[in-house]
């Protein structure tokens, strides 16, 4: 099951030049593992990072949202 999106903070430009912050969809189990181990998580859109911020403060990643809607049939 997926939980409320987690955030990504980019302090430098990535390969696509996107320096904005988004909340990304990640498995609830992966989020808990990351909190314990400090290991990065992988969002539905492929972004990799260690969650550290409150996801409710950021807009949802449009790619994650699209993928999630495709997986759940738009629900």
Describe this structure in words.
This protein is an alpha+beta fold. 28% of the residues lie in helices and 13% in strands. It has two helices and four strands; from the N terminus they run E-E-H-E-E-H. It has helices at 28-37, 62-72; strands spanning 6-8, 22-24, 41-42, 48-49. The chain has a two-stranded antiparallel sheet. A two-stranded antiparallel ribbon has the order 3-4. Strand 3 (41-42) and strand 4 form a beta hairpin. The protein is globular and about 35 Å long. The two termini are 14 Å apart.
Beta content comes to: 5-15%
Mean pLDDT: 80
Helix coverage percent of residues? 25-40%
Q: How far is the first residue's CA from the last residue's CA?
A: 14 Å
Shape: globular
**What are the secondary-structure elements, in order, as H or E?**
EEHEEH
Our Rg estimate from Cα atoms comes to 12 Å
The computed structural class is alpha+beta
Strand order of the largest sheet: 1-2
Number of distinct helices: 2
Unreliable runs: 9-19
- Largest sheet at a glance? 2 strands, antiparallel
The quaternary state of the protein chains shown equals single chain
What is the count of β-strands? 4
């Amino acid at each position: 099951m997926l939980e409320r999106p987690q955030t990504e903070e980019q302090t430098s430009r990535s390969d696509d030049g996107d320096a904005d912050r988004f909340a990304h969809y990640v498995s609830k189990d992966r989020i808990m593992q990351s909190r314990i181990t400090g290991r990065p998580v992988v969002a539905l859109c492929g972004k990799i990072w260690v969650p550290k911020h409150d996801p409710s403060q950021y807009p949802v990643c449009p790619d994650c949202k699209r993928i999630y809607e495709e997986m759940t049939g738009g629900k």
